[in-house]
Amino acid sequence: MISNCKVGAIVFFVSDLARSVAFYRDTLGLPVEALEGHDGPWAMGEVEGLALVFIPRPARPGESPVVVFSLDGGIDDHAEALAAKGVEIVVPVSESPDGGLSLDFLDPDGNVLSLHQPEGAPRRH
User: What one-character DSSP code corresponds to residue 29?
Assistant: First the structure.
């Protein structure tokens, strides 16, 4: 169903955004920058085309990181197909910090997975 996609991001929920930015940027040497989104501050970096996204939010062990599958559009179609297969949707289609759309759902073990499509992409194919 989502086979025509790629892993586009890994999202980390972090307790201290400045500390995480400093670690990934200064300690590991990755290009990470703090940003301001519609929901508040967040940060983003990149490793060989794979986005690393850091969102300040309390999380229990196992809730982070979140693997994000990148779509070129059709997120509403995917949401309906996942729901029809009995997949638990934990965050319905909503605006993501970068202006695109995302959808979070659970695998059978309760791991969070996410779909993301960029801003301006069609919601349906």
Answer: -
Q: Which are the contacts of 73, defined by CB distance < 8 A and separation ≥ 6?
A: 117, 121, 122, 123, 124, 125
Amino acid found at 71 = L
**Integer Cα distance of 55 and 39 in angstroms:** 10
Q: Which residues contact 90 (CB under 8 A, 6 or more apart)?
A: 104, 105, 106, 112
**How many other β-carbons are positioned within 10 Å of the β-carbon of residue 25?**
16
Integer Cα distance of 34 and 81 in angstroms: 35
- Whether this prediction's pTM lies above 0.85 is answered by no
Contact 56, 94 (CB under 8 A): no
The string of pLDDT tens digits covering residues 66-93 is 889 999 999 999 999 999 999 999 999 9
Query: Do 70 and 116 contact (CB within 8 A), yes or no?
Result: yes
Pairing of strands 112-117, 66-70: parallel
Q: Would you state the structure tokens that stand for residue 1, as one six-digit string?
A: 């169903």
